[in-house]
Design brief:
about 240 residues; alpha/beta; Rossmann fold; 2 domains; four-stranded parallel β-sheet; globular
Length: about 240
């Protein structure tokens, strides 16, 4: 099965190790992985800020970049959902609407692809410790991916999983929201950090680097020792066999 990796900007620029972990795991699961080098930003920051016309150029570049892909696997539920949003953005366009639909139909979030397409819910991962999971807003509420991460994490050997209190609440990142509404964002992430503390977890796991950067950054500033990990790092940790 051929997979084209949609790394996202944050993985590409700040968390390249997450991309490497994801590629290793996908190859372990039998996938042939490529990385279209012409991929750029999906256009979401500009789109969410109201600059729809300006964001279209980035969207077109992404549709062209992944035109030949069999499956597109994204390392962020938020960015993966943006590919589905392209269909609405280019609705009625005789050239780009069909391309947008084609891209949306073959795009999956990382854990969604493993569970729903590869039909795997145990990747043989092993990580000792106590962990909690942050459910990012776009991935759960818009993309609708809720069960896949839990199925995979529940099969990680040695991992004691604790539910995060008020897990449905936003961490305060929200892309450009955290820039425009910094003081409100700070209060939101402080509340999220408090809930992480309540779990007494060793690890905070998530599937979106934007959220993890926001929560992890705040925990670092206040001296919180909880280790932040993208779910790809966890699932590729000490695989058996």
């Amino acid at each position: 099965m051929k997979v084209s990796l949609f790394a996202t900007c944050l993985v590409d620029m700040f968390h390249s190790h997450v991309g490497k972990e994801a590629v290793e795991l996908l190859e372990y699961l039998g996938c042939e992985v490529d990385f279209p080098e012409s991929q750029v930003c999906c256009g979401q920051p500009a789109f969410n800020s109201g600059y729809v016309r300006d964001s279209k150029e980035a969207m077109k570049k992404m549709m062209d970049a992944f035109a030949g892909a069999e499956y597109v696997v994204g390392l962020s539920g938020s960015c993966a959902y943006m590919f589905h949003e392209y269909v609405n953005v280019f609705k009625g366009d005789p050239v780009w609407e069909p391309k947008a639909k084609a891209l949306a139909n073959k795009t999956y979030e990382f854990t969604e692809f493993i569970v729903d397409v590869l039909k795997v819910d145990d990747v043989g991962a092993c990580l000792n410790g106590r962990a909690t999971y942050h459910t990012s807003c776009h991935m759960t509420r818009l993309l609708g991916v809720k069960e896949a991460p839990m199925k995979l994490l529940n099969n990680v050997k040695g991992l004691e999983f604790v539910d995060l209190p008020n897990k449905e609440q936003c961490c305060g990142f929200g892309g450009t929201f955290s820039v425009k509404m910094g003081q409100i964002s700070e209060q939101m992430v402080d509340e999220k950090v408090q809930h992480v503390d309540e779990t007494e977890a060793d690890y905070l796991i998530g599937a979106d680097c934007g959220c993890l950067m926001n929560i992890g950054g705040r925990m670092g500033r206040v001296g919180n020792p909880v280790k932040v990990m993208h779910i790809a790092e966890v699932l590729n940790h000490r695989r058996e066999g």
